[in-house]
Design a protein that fits this description.
Blueprint: E1 2-8, E2 13-18, H1 21-29, E3 43-45, H2 70-86, E4 88-91, H3 94-102, E5 111-113, H4 117-125
Parallel strand pairs: 4-5
Antiparallel strand pairs: 1-2, 1-3
Amino acid sequence: MIKYTLHCTNAHQFEAWFSSSASYDAQAAARQILCPVCGTDGVGKSLMTPNVVSSKRGAGKREQTPAVPPEVMDVAREVRRYVAENAEYVGPRFAEEARKIHFEEAEPRGIYGEATVADVEHLREEGVEFYPLPHLPEDHN
């Protein structure tokens, strides 16, 4: 596993884990990596410094990239829990159902599910309002 610090075209910065650098490259080329803040697929790697063990001061200690504060993760979990308890899960039909609600072909209601990168781009172009749910570490287990 490899962790990259990523940034989007809207200047949001976040971290993501990949099984390998080739996995990141393939997902990036297919525009499958989305910003968890704004949902854009315009994402790239940020400059990163490697963790290096020094033989001088602090030998044996590694500098760690600051983790997401536990309070932030608690809020992200609460958001996900709230959505799951108060919205209808529509799975891969998310884009279709969101359009129906937006164009008043279906009753307004909270929904959540999955969407492809292409679906996300089309929904944005059509003016359909939606927000990506935050990714959690346990999603990758």
